[in-house]
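Researcher: I'd like a structural prediction for the single chain below. Treat it as a standalone chain; there are no partners to consider.
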Amino acid sequence: MSNIQEFSYETITFSVADHVATLTLNRPDSRNALNLQMCRDIVTACERVGANDDIRVMVVKSAGNVFCAGADLKERQGMTTADMVARRVEGFTAYAAIEDVGIPVIAVVQGAAIGSGAEIAASCDFVLTSTNATFKYPEVGWGTVGATQRLPRIVGRRMAKELLYTGRVVDAAEAKTLGLANHVYEPDQLNAEADALAAAIAKNNPLTVRLTKHCVDAGLETTRQGAMAVELLAIQENLRHSDWKHAIAKFGGDKTEKKHAS
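Model: Treating it as a single chain, here is the predicted structure.
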């Protein structure tokens, strides 16, 4: 492994090694509850990723046994209505910062992801979990509104309403079935699997990965015809800025070698 770069934040740890950035929620004594400072630290770290072309993948993890227990409710005691609105905006800004990172973002959920924790996971491109992971959307039970936009896009309208209205716990196996998680691993295997996946993605051409992410995300927000236009523009950009002729020649050479070997 190459030299690891580490950056200091109050509520998270952030490091970069071998083209992979690792953002770790680091308030284990508070079950990694999302407070105002963590929102701001997440945004700053994501801006750092966006400014560094050497970073090709970002992994979002957390310290301790809980991924994120939701918003820090202690912080909200004594807040005015205006304060509450401002605080929710800070949370939305943090989720959007993760979602808008131009490279693949992998959430590694080792334990409970509740409320804001589930939103952080949903802001990532995909999610790996341990068998101990759970998801819960308690906003309605807390007398507030949240998780109404990303969740339906992942699990569908009807299931999203069920999870939001009831606030029931979704275990790792069901999370995979619903699309909240891509893969489920034993706890002692989770980090190694996440690291291997991040490394595999980081080996790809960074431009084509970025363009592919953009096409998928932008395409889902428009019509089929609009999505095709998004992809065509991405193809044109890729042809202008990548060595596609060399890649095709290399692929053809590999096929020839295999043919002779057989």
